[in-house]
Design brief:
Elements lengths: L21 H8 L3 E6 L5 E2 L14 E6 L2 E10 L13 E8 L5 E7 L12 E9 L5 E8 L2
Antiparallel strand pairs: 1-2, 1-3, 4-5, 4-7, 5-6, 7-8
């Protein structure tokens, strides 16, 4: 039995060739959720960019944030978007808003029963899903908070 949410055979996420998102992936390996924040004006942003969307500064920093947010939107996917998902059944993808990071939003999987009721505004917590192997990596998944 696998300790991961999605089946084996999915593409392995790696940092972009330009290294822009490498701190994010390194943070996940260390059990930390890192989001970009402008070192000049303090604006949070996701996904990673070289320049601040607010003040055009190149002084972007990676800041650890609490892995807690709220469900902003969601979708229950039935159609396999990759051959490894054939026969895997439904899974839930959520758009999570992070109030401790300027309300930026991230997409991820919602762990648990794929038939569960999902409520907009529900509090979720991050779960770091480690994958060992030749190219180890960690994914951030989400679970409804108790």
């Amino acid at each position: 039995m696998s300790n991961t949410y999605l089946p084996e055979g999915m593409p392995i996420p790696v940092p972009m060739n330009d290294g822009l998102d490498k701190p994010y992936w390194d943070g996940l390996q260390g059990g930390k959720l890192l989001i970009q924040r402008c070192g000049d004006c303090g604006t949070w942003q996701w996904g990673p960019e070289w320049i601040c969307h607010e003040c055009n500064s190149f002084n972007m920093e990676w800041t650890e944030v609490e892995g807690e947010g709220t469900i902003y939107s969601w979708e229950r996917a039935w159609h396999p978007v990759h051959p490894a998902l054939n026969g895997h059944g439904a899974y839930i993808t959520v758009l999570v808003e992070l109030p401790n990071a300027g309300n930026v939003r991230m997409i991820g999987n919602l762990l648990g029963d794929p038939a569960q009721e999902v409520k907009i505004g529900a509090t979720v917590k991050s779960v770091f899903e480690k994958h060992d192997g030749d190219t180890p990596y960690t994914l951030v998944q989400w679970r409804v908070a108790d």
